[in-house]
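Researcher: I'd like a candidate sequence for this fold, 219 residues long. If you have to choose between options at a position, lean toward the conservative one.
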C-alpha cells in the first residue's frame, strides 16, 4: 500500500533501453573479434603488400604491362591457395586440441556426476577450418586485386608504378582504419603501421630486384 508521502519515479522506456545498450556496449569484449579480425586483416594486408611488391619487383626490370599483370595474377592465385591451406591446417590443429580438451572435460564431469550446461554446449563454439580457409583466401584475393586493377589500364611504365603505389597506399589506410575501428584500437597508429610496412616491402623488393638486374644478371 502506498503512503501519502511516498514518491514514485518512473523511468522512460527509451532511457532504460539506452542505458542497457550503453552498458552492453561497455561490457562487450572486443577480444572476441580477435580471431576472425586477425585472419581478415592479415589476409587483406598480405594480398595488398605481397602482390604490389611482386609487381614492383617485376616493374624494376621489365617495362611491359603483360609481364607485371601475369606476375601479379600468378601471385594472387598462389597466395590465395597458400593462405587458404595454411589457415585450414592451423585452425584444424586448433580444432583437434579443443575437441580433445572438451572430451577430457566431459569425461571428468561425468565421473564426478556433475555435467553442466556449459560443458554440454562447448561444441557450438569450436572453430571451423573450412570457413577460416575460405575467409582467408577471399581476404587475400580482395587485397591482391587492388594493385592488379591499378596497373591493368595504364600504358606508361612510370605512371603505372606510381598508380600501384598510390592505390595500395590508399587501400592500406582504409583497411588499417577498419581494423582499428572494429578492434577499438588507436586509428592513427594502426594506419601508420600498415602503411609504413607496405611502403618498406615495396621499396625493398623494388630495390633488391633492381640491384640484381644491374649486377649483370641476364633476365
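Model: Candidate sequence:
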Amino acid at each position: 500500500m502506498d503512503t501519502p508521502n511516498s514518491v514514485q519515479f518512473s523511468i522512460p522506456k527509451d532511457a532504460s533501453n539506452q542505458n542497457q545498450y550503453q552498458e552492453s556496449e561497455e561490457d562487450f569484449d572486443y577480444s572476441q573479434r580477435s580471431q576472425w579480425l586477425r585472419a581478415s586483416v592479415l589476409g587483406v594486408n598480405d594480398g595488398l603488400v605481397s602482390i604490389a611488391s611482386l609487381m614492383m619487383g617485376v616493374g624494376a626490370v621489365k617495362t611491359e604491362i603483360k609481364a607485371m599483370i601475369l606476375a601479379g595474377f600468378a601471385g594472387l592465385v598462389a597466395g590465395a591457395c597458400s593462405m587458404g591451406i595454411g589457415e585450414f591446417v592451423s585452425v584444424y590443429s586448433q580444432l583437434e586440441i579443443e575437441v580433445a580438451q572438451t572430451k577430457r572435460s566431459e569425461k571428468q564431469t561425468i565421473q564426478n556426476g556433475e555435467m553442466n550446461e556449459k560443458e554440454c554446449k562447448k561444441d557450438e563454439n569450436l572453430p571451423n577450418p573450412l570457413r577460416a580457409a575460405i575467409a582467408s583466401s577471399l581476404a587475400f584475393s580482395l587485397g591482391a586485386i587492388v594493385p592488379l586493377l591499378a596497373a591493368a589500364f595504364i600504358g606508361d611504365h612510370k605512371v603505372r608504378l606510381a598508380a600501384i603505389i598510390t592505390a595500395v597506399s590508399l587501400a592500406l589506410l582504409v583497411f588499417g582504419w577498419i581494423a582499428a575501428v572494429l578492434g577499438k584500437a588507436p586509428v592513427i597508429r594502426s594506419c601508420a603501421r600498415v602503411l609504413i610496412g607496405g611502403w618498406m616491402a615495396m621499396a625493398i623488393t623494388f630495390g633488391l630486384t633492381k640491384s640484381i638486374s644491374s649486377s649483370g644478371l641476364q633476365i
